[in-house]
Design brief:
By secondary structure, the protein is of the alpha/beta class. It folds into 2 domains: 141 residues, Rossmann fold (3-Layer(aba) Sandwich); 122 residues, 3-Layer(aba) Sandwich (Rossmann fold). 41% of the residues lie in helices and 22% in strands. It has a 10-stranded mixed beta sheet, sandwiched between helices. It is globular. The two termini are 20 Å apart.
Length: 279
């Protein structure tokens, strides 16, 4: 069992080379086909056309987006010509409102989507849209890499966040190829409910399932001593010297997280180690 189709999306040249290096390294590790989608995004049209604007403005914006996508694709193809792996390159011209449909379609048929952190310096709204589209519209697991380049961690020590949710279980199943390769997987449960279904053995059934897949696993049940769950998970991953955090994504709505914040958004904004997301 492994990832045989890995996909990534490029919208700008800023991080293109290092993102390609990361995706290529992972594809080689799993003997997977790598698909790189080069996007030309027209940010002047959020969801459609503005009434009264000259058609020339729209056409110029679309022409520029097409040029950007084609130039990205040409550079990617040149870079991968001598790569020892199976690869393909696709291009698309999209408005911000059209990202979900395209990315969702591509992600739906990928085993894993590899992306940079969607928040921070040099990142734009398209990066958040791409990440969420892969998760929600594509239903694909997403590996977020805060540090890009050829030096992708081996993911020898993994922390798996468990809260009994459907999203956490989906992330566990999707991450199995990585969990089975790890030297140790630490299942962390933060403040388990006193009257929950797993009250006498938090994480016990999950651990049993993982052991049957030959995963080496232990459990940490910890109290919530910091205001945010994301802070607890980041500190615990640091204490465990983990090089990957696996978590179920967006247990609450995206709108709620965008306005009030939430574990997924906070982790993506602040994490220093790779995060594996699924839902």
């Amino acid at each position: 069992m492994g990832y045989k189709s890995i996909c990534t999306f490029l919208a700008t040249e800023a991080q293109a080379e290092r993102l390609i290096d990361s995706a290529q390294a992972l594809s080689t590790r799993f003997d997977a086909h790598l698909e790189i989608c080069c996007l030309g995004i027209d940010t002047t049209q959020s969801v459609g056309f503005y009434a009264g604007a000259p058609a020339m403005i729209y056409q110029d914006a679309l022409d520029q987006a097409r040029t950007n996508a084609d130039e990205l694709a040409a550079k990617v193809k040149q870079r991968l010509q001598r790569a020892d792996l199976r690869w393909s390159v696709d291009t698309a011209v999209l408005t911000l409102g059209g990202i979900s449909a395209y990315v969702g379609l591509k992600a739906r048929f990928a085993d894993l989507v590899v992306l940079p952190r969607p928040y921070g310096d040099g990142r734009g709204p398209q990066d958040e849209f791409i990440t969420e589209a892969a998760l929600f519209d594509g239903g694909a697991p997403v590996l977020i890499l805060p540090e890009l380049g050829t030096d992708v961690p081996d993911f020898a020590k993994i922390v798996l966040a468990w809260n009994q949710s459907d999203e956490a279980l989906a992330a566990t199943r999707a991450a199995l190829p990585l969990l089975k390769r790890a030297d140790m997987v630490n299942v962390v449960v933060v403040d388990p409910p006193v009257h929950g279904i797993e009250r006498s053995d938090p994480g016990g059934m999950l651990t049993q399932m993982l052991v049957r897949h030959d995963v080496t696993v232990d459990i940490s049940v910890i109290a919530k001593t910091l205001p945010r769950i994301s802070d607890m998970l980041r500190r615990h991953a640091q204490d465990q010297a983990a090089d990957l955090l696996v978590i179920g994504a967006y247990s609450h709505s995206r709108l709620r997280q965008a306005i009030l914040g939430g574990t997924t958004r906070n982790l993506l904004e602040e994490t220093a180690i790779p995060v594996f997301l699924a839902r």
